[in-house]
Amino acid sequence: MAASPATSRITATRRPTTSTSKSRFDRRLSSILAHAINVFYEKGYEGASMRDLSRASGMSLAGMYHYFESKEKLLYLIQRHTFSTIVEQLRGKLDSADDPEARIRILILNHLEYFLANQKAMKVLSHEDEVLKNGFGVEVRALKREYYRICRDVLDDFKRANQVHFSTRVAVLSLFGMMNWIYTWYKPRVDGDAAKLAQEMGDIFLSGIRDGKPARKFARVN
Amino acid sequence: MAASPATSRITATRRPTTSTSKSRFDRRLSSILAHAINVFYEKGYEGASMRDLSRASGMSLAGMYHYFESKEKLLYLIQRHTFSTIVEQLRGKLDSADDPEARIRILILNHLEYFLANQKAMKVLSHEDEVLKNGFGVEVRALKREYYRICRDVLDDFKRANQVHFSTRVAVLSLFGMMNWIYTWYKPRVDGDAAKLAQEMGDIFLSGIRDGKPARKFARVN
Fold first, then answer.
1. Which among B37, B94, B39, B29 is positioned nearest to B63, based on CA atoms?
2. I want to staple A196 with a disulfide (CB 3.0 to 4.6 A). Which of A34, A148, A192, B114 is the partner?
3. CATH, residue A191
């Protein structure tokens, strides 16, 4: 994981303050989070211990407790980093497009690109969706809601522009399902890269919602 | 879980042979599997012990080891039961319909009905997808492939009938994703029952693949 604006937003409990140590700290933190992702991926969150996390990252067990307090905190930092990054990248890319269909294509490509570049992290996130409680959970859920709301607004713009009708909630969450489920089946040699998958899923999804005109819908149902 | 043809196919290692004890055995086995699903759901597969499983089901620890050998065997029995049942129910329902679109609607409704009626089991299965190794894993993967193949054939029939073109693999797996992901978001009061969701997802998915004509597709992309 390279240092990025999102990485620098990740703050552990006790953080050095000088700027040199800060960037070194960020790199170290990124590396520890990457190791923690591997451990959670291999052992599951429940099956992983602070000792496993310490061994994998090369930090002493005392150091792990000092900086991260608990494996819950590590999971929180991983989740916060992931959702902040996806949201930040999406906002940046959406700024460059006005066409509602193009914006949906951007959303799909951004999600799949991030997902395929961070498959282990995404599997950990899918599996440990409800582990975080209290403050950590509240913060991560707020980030997820932010992401959901951006996607919902993109779809609502499409509905207005094309005068079509469908449940935005079911459509957004169906699209998330199409995209997130790839961690169970994606094979690079068979399925190609994120751009190819985004094209194919985008074709199905966009045709699917473009057809949501009440007249045609009712004609089909009856 | 009621006794069903699929339940009776679930055979533990040492099984009594008389017919009276057989049906009692099946009921007892169904009840133990239901308790095991709860434990795996609450604690995760890694986090659950045979002691937890014994406590929840009311069977002695020695009895658990005698009849089930390991928690892996229990997970295998749960997975085998689930996929056998879904496949069996789907085959029965597909027999009654010839129209390719109606058959896709049947597939979606069958999947969502089973999913919503067995949400805990489906979450356990989604999470512990790759746990089973060797013989258990081989058998469950064969059942999953059987289910995948039925769905693939249903979609291929639709393609032929409508002379449309899309990747059947991406379409089937996207549809599985749309449907399976609901375990992360489904709220009965907001989203309604399986029939309502199946209608909405079916509308999006069927419009999505119906539009897969190369001429229109290329016109849209360029």
1. B29
2. A192
3. 1.10.357.10
B174 to chain A, closest Cα gap in Å: 4
Alpha-helical segments (H) within B48-184 = 50-57, 61-68, 71-94, 100-117, 119-127, 134-162, 168-180
Task: Examine the pLDDT at B130 and tell me if it is beyond 90.
Answer: no
Domain-embedded: residue A222: no
A220 part of a folded domain: no
Number of domains in chain B: 1
* Residue A219 within any structural domain of the chain: no
Q: Which stretches of chain A score pLDDT less than 50?
A: 1-17, 214-222
Q: How far apart are the first and last CA of chain B?
A: 53
Query: For residue A191, what are the domain limits?
Result: 5-213
Residues of A in contact with B182 (CB under 8 A): 173, 177
Residue B205 has pLDDT above 50, yes or no: yes
**Residue A18 has what DSSP assignment?**
S
DSSP state of A95: T
Highest mean pLDDT among A16-20, A28-32, B72-76, B123-127: B72-76
Q: How far is CA B184 from CA A165, B105, B180, B187, B216, in A?
A: 24, 23, 9, 9, 35
Q: Is A100 on the interface with B (CB under 8 A)?
A: no
Residue A221 lies in a domain: no
User: Which residues numbered 20-49 in B keep a CB inside 8 Å of some CB on A?
Assistant: 43-47
